[in-house]
Amino acid sequence: MKRIPVVAGHNLDLHRLFIEVTTRGGVEQVIKNRKCKAVIQSLNVSTTTTNAAYLLKKYYLDILFAFEHVYFFQEPLSSFRSREEAMNRFLIEKKSANHDNDNDNGTHELEAGCLINGIIDGKFEDGYFVTMKMGSQELKGVLYHTPETSADARRRKKKAKSPSEMDFARPKSHRSGYNFFVADQYQRIKHEYAGQDRYPIKEIGNKWSNLPASDRKVYLDKGSEDAERYKTEMSEYYALVQSCAADIVAKIDDAASANDDAAAANDDAAAAHDDAAAANDEAEL
């Protein structure tokens, strides 16, 4: 289960986010036209602590993209998989184009959550001394995290259990036979590498390559079973998406109807005011 996203200390209004994006032609058009910041600002969310494009891609694509496909573009859910793949290609191409432009200009604008290359120069208790390259610049610094207090852990655990912050469940991706093998090997050897900076990934890969066919089949069967599990859960997930999306559409229709009723009431009030003014004029005559 997923929590409702929290941004700048407040729950993200997913219904409002859906409206703001679709009125601009959908998420792809928003990204192409560089309207991510405008969308986020319309939600009264501060962008000083969160990159608008990153926030939009992270939450809209993860939670609302399927709704957009079915209820905004009126496309069948069966074609959503291909739309997801097309969006991924679009994002990759856009990122590549931005990277080429950065190289040409000798600059590189980083987004929250993006990956950069670096070297670990040393280690201390809560982090690392690192060297990173950004374009033609070489930067040195530290990478660290603040240890979590017991009070923070209790607060997070209590918050995670709140039903009001639970969203629909997206199935966990299926694992391959090799993934199961790596997990098994890790459990066996993790105590040998406790406190070290590396695990023998290459050695595990070699073990897999040399694994007898009979032993490998055990893991491949596990992978096949997990793939079937994923297929079944995804079918249930898409059914849930349709149900939730129908509720959103109903809210949109109700809001439009309420606006029409309010406009009609304003017209009636204006007409009544005109009638009263006319009556006063006649009385004065």
Please render the helix and strand layout as text:
Elements: E1 2-3, E2 6-7, E3 10-11, H1 14-22, H2 27-32, H3 36-42, H4 52-72, H5 80-105, E4 118-124, E5 127-134, E6 137-144, H6 150-160, E7 166-167, H7 177-189, H8 201-209, H9 213-284
Antiparallel strand pairs: 1-7, 2-3, 4-5, 5-6
Organism: Thlaspi arvense (Field penny-cress)
Region (Disordered): 150-171, 259-285
InterPro entries: ARID_dom, ARID_dom_sf, HMG_box_dom, HMG_box_dom_sf
What does this structure look like?
This is HMG box domain-containing protein. One of its GO terms (molecular function) is DNA binding. Keywords: DNA-binding, Nucleus. It comes from Thlaspi arvense (Field penny-cress). InterPro entries: ARID_dom, ARID_dom_sf, HMG_box_dom, HMG_box_dom_sf. By secondary structure, the chain is mainly α. It folds into three domains: 113 residues, DNA polymerase, domain 1 (Orthogonal Bundle); 31 residues, no CATH class; 108 residues, no CATH class. 61% of the residues lie in helices and 11% in strands. The strands form three sheets. Strands 4-5-6 form a three-stranded antiparallel beta sheet, with no helix packed on it. Strands 1-7 form a two-stranded antiparallel sheet. Strands 2-3 form a two-stranded antiparallel sheet. It is elongated, with a radius of gyration of 27 Å. 10% of the residues are buried.
